[in-house]
Amino acid sequence: SDKTGTLTLNKLSVDHPNLAPYNGHTAKDIMYDGALAARTENNEPIDMCIHNECAEHDELWEKHTLLHYTPFDPVTKKTVAKIKDNATGKVFRTAKGAPQVILGLDAKADGIRAEVEAKILEFANRGYRALGVARTEDGECDIGECHWELVGLIPLFDPPRHDTAETIRRANELGIDVKMITGDQTAIAKETARQLGMPTDIHDTSFFDQPLPAGSVTIDELIEQADGFAEVFPEHKYEIVKRLQGLGHITGMTGDGVNDAPALKKADIGIAVDDATDAARAAADIVLLSPGLSVIIDAIIGSRKIFKRMKNYALYSISTTVRIVFTFGLLTCIYDWYFPTILIVIIALLNDGTILTISKDRVKPSDKPDSWALKEVFITSIVFGLWLALSSIALFELAYRTTWFSDTFGLEDYSVSHDMQNTFAGIKCSTFTGDEATECSLYEDRSSKMRGLIYLQVSVSGQALIFVTRAKKFFFQDRPGFLLMLAFVFAQVCATLLGVYGMGGYPGEDESAQVDAFRGCGWGYALVAWVWAILWFLPMDPIKMFVRFCLNGGLARTYARTTFTASLNPSHVSGKHRSVKSTNHISRDRRLSRANGLGGY
Fold first, then answer.
1. Is the dihedral angle over the CA atoms 14, 19, 21, 26 positive or is it negative?
2. Are residues 466 and 481 in contact, defined by beta-carbon separation less than 8 angstroms?
3. For the stretch 33-66, what's the b/e string if a residue is b when 16 or more beta carbons lie within 10 angstroms of its beta carbon?
């Protein structure tokens, strides 16, 4: 993230008691000459601040006339104004800009350099940006040849946005690493980071121009591990984003200025804050319309909820498809048993109607960046589908091939012998006469009622699967949304009534042609279907966690990860890498930081 105007408000104020005059000038002279070198037409924050903080700004341009103005640019880091005094006609120049640049204009800079740089560093350590002001009485000479004199330093304070610290904290909790990028000097960046609760492993950009010591980290590793960068130019912001992307990171960039536009365009997600320039807005993917950064966290949480709902839907949809295909494929191939197509359509309609409500389901966003993990999605879905198919086949075998339910609970006997199955399956009873016709009718009656039982068990167990796929651990630990529950209850009431009462033999053509007729199974077998579905539903959460455990490497990976973390930082209670990384960076800080480097304006 850019600092000025993004992490901070870019609403500057002058600390008047700490104005630092030099060369016999006064604090009033600093503000007066600084205001003469400022232009308010473009509403540039520094110019507006210096102009408005000058006590005489209302009469400033009544006494003077601006003859020429050189605006600020990132290379020269200063503005220069050629001014005419209306009372005397005298022409002079004033300049303001980065303090080290303005100090370099002073003909006697060597005599006061140590004192000025100490003051700049003092301001920086307090989080102030120092602005230098200079003046030359000779307004006609070339800027580089004039006899400039340092008037003094202006300490500027740019407060953080009201929600920046909380936004950074929440971003870190969501697994997002926040890096500060600023043109200010390193000391200012570190103080701002401290105020925002960020780590202070911040480097200047000298490593882009100077080779790193042999045996040290690479530039990519340094960029990846650092907490921020100071004294940067626009091309450095772009390069930092590019290198992070090259390391495989999804990189977002927030900014507000023209100099942020290239990095905003390069980033995977470019975000322009509410008061950003037109160039930044045009380059960004997202433009914030209200003050503050907390909306970014809202967007992250919202997108993760959407993603989780999509992933839950994918798991459920694939599992259901596998289950339907295997259940009725096996029943047809192994048992030569027919299931009406119309019931498949009804199952699909009720399932789809219920699953639509998942778009409003109550979900908990993941605490780290998520991904599709297609291997896990497909394997888990296939396991679920096969498990549910097995539950239906087992129920069919128990009810259709044995008399267990009738013997144990006194329910109607739905059993069909292999001989009966082989004789009458797929044949119209009208082709038989006498005892064979009676036996055929019994076969068709039991088969049609079995369709009610299997339909209800498939419907109940299939839709209940959504409560497993939507939960990270056990289904009862993650309460579903009201709409999802309402849709599930409605769908299962309809499915239960349809399973109990059937469709009067439909789609059989008539009473003597009921190869795939559908009759209700009655309330007794409806209870069997519900209990059976619940019994097979309960092991699904442990199955889900076991599959995930195996896909993640099982015990070996868990042991290796625990051992690695412990060996990295055995004495640290949290076991986090941050403290290790910060310690390792101390020597790198000393190698790469220029001594009290003076930052951008």
1. positive
2. no
3. bbbbbbbeeeebbbbbbbbebbeebeeeeeebee
Residue type for position 309 = R
Helix spans in 374-433 (H):
374-401, 404-409, 418-424
Report the distance separating Cα 69 and Cα 81, nearest Å. 5
The residue among 387, 321, 390 whose CA lies nearest residue 355 is 321
The 10s digit of each residue's pLDDT in 72-95 is 887 788 999 999 999 999 999 999
**Structure tokens given for 153:** 């330093």
Give per-10-residue mean pLDDT for the chain (601 aa).
78 90 94 93 86 90 92 86 92 92 90 92 88 90 84 90 87 91 86 87 85 79 91 89 93 89 93 88 91 87 92 93 95 87 92 89 88 91 96 95 93 85 72 79 86 95 93 90 94 95 72 65 95 96 93 60 39 34 36 34 38
Among candidate residues 266, 205, 274, the one with its CA nearest the CA of residue 233: 205
Contact 190, 599 (CB under 8 A): no
What pLDDT, on a 0 to 100 scale, did the predictor assign at position 581?
37
- The pTM score is 0.74
In DSSP terms, which residues pair with 230 in a beta bridge?
204
Spatial distance between the Cα atoms of 192 and 194, rounded to a whole number of angstroms? 5
Out of 2, 106, 201, 227, the active site residue is: 2
**pLDDT for the residue numbered 582:** 36
Amino acid at 528: V
- At 24 the three-state DSSP class reads coil
2 among known catalytic residues? yes
Contacts of 280 (CB under 8 A, 6+ apart): 255, 256, 257, 258, 260, 261, 264, 272
Amino acid, single-letter form, for residue 242: K
Residues whose CB falls within 8 Å of the CB of residue 298, separated by 6 or more in sequence, listed in order = none
Q: Tokens 């004033």 belong to which residue? A: 94
CA distance 348 to 253: 44
DSSP string spanning 97-124? E-HHHHHHHBTTHHHHHHHHHHHHHHHH
pLDDT at 326: 96
Q: Is the dihedral of CA 168, 174, 179, 181 positive or negative?
A: negative
Residue 571: exposed, middle, or buried by beta-carbon count in 10 A (0-12, 13-18, 19+)? exposed
pLDDT digits 0-9 by tens, 503-529: 876 776 554 445 567 888 999 999 999
